[in-house]
Amino acid sequence: MSAFTSLEIKQLSKKLEDQSPQQIIAWAIETFSPQIAVSSSFQTQSVPLLHMVSKIDPEMLIFFLDTGYHFWETLMFREQLQRELGLKIQNLYVDGQWKTFLSRFGRDLYEHDPDLCCYLRKVQPMQKAMKTVRAWISGIRRDQTATRQSAQILELEREGLIKINPLLNWTRQNVHEYIREYNLPSHPLYEKGYRSIGCKPCTRAVIVGEDERAGRWAGKEKTECGLHTEMFNQDGPKNSTLLQGFILTSNQEETR
Ligand code: SF4
Q1: CB of 199 closer than 6 A to ligand 1?
Q2: Which residues are paired to 63 by β-bridges?
Q3: Which of 52, 145, 165, 230 is the most buried (most CB within 10 A)?
Q4: CA nearest 31: which of 46, 54, 9, 64?
Q5: Which pLDDT score is estimated for 252?
Q6: pLDDT of residue 45
Q7: Domains of the chain: which residue ranges?
Q8: Which residues of the chain have pLDDT under 50?
Q9: How far apart (Å, rounded) are the C-alpha atoms in residues 14 and 18?
Q10: 197-217 pLDDT, tens digit each
């Protein structure tokens, strides 16, 4: 459980609104280290946070969700940043309990039930990893999506986990200025129009004038994977008829 009450988190969060990302990261490390980790998807917008963390606490653990669907450029970029910044990365994978389900439905699950796909490949592995720490540093920004506009610097998550969003008040321009200032690399697909990069089947390049996340789950209602929404605090994907049907059939087979 968190040592902070919900009210204390709200008050602290308000105080941190005026602090720089580096100051917020330093506060988080001083308060929670070593029970703290960063999550990263290793795209261009991840670079400033990874660079700051590597300077403030080179021992910090970085969680990467290896969904099995990443662009090879993302995996190469992860390796490049690991080498150049000396990052300590831990890959997270889908839980083995879903092996049978995914062998039957996993291949194009992102088409039929993307929320379930994200839950199994991203949300649940992250929930599991976060049980090993007290605090989670994420790189989300308010200017990225409508959902993220209401995010707070500090958020109280499931089981008392404290989520820290040090770059919340930054803009896309701040990200690029920081990358230029420190002469840091960009994801190889950035120049090809990929402004926000996730799994390959659910990401396309954007055209001029489009929102930077318009290429994520394009043509679907979905805009978030669930790590930064209420889905993270749920114990399973809501309303997945595919999964419910599978569980029902498995139970019937077991009782025969
Ligand atoms: S982004 Fe797409 S492929 Fe990746 S976990 Fe989510 S739905 Fe599945």
Answers
A1: yes
A2: 39, 90
A3: 165
A4: 9
A5: 72
A6: 94
A7: 6-250
A8: none
A9: 8
A10: 999 999 999 998 888 889 999
Contacts 24+ apart (CB under 8 A), 205-211: none
Cα–Cα distance between 104 and 107 in angstroms, integer? 8
Active site residue 118: no
Nearest to 142 by CA among 189, 180, 118, 175: 175
Q: What is the distance between the alpha carbons of residues 65 and 119, in angstroms, rounded to a whole number?
A: 12
Q: At what angle do helices 6-16 and 21-32 cross, to 10 degrees?
A: 150
Ligand 1 centroid – CA 29 distance (Å): 31
Give the burial class of 107: count Cβ atoms within 10 A of its Cβ; 0-12 exposed, 13-18 middle, 19 or more buried. Answer: exposed
Ligand 1 centroid to residue 218 C-alpha, Å: 12
Any ligand 1 atom below 6 A from CB of 114: yes
pLDDT at 246: 80
Q: Give the C-alpha separation, 41 to 95, whole Å.
A: 19
Q: Which of 118, 199, 202, 225 is catalytic?
A: 225
pTM: 0.93
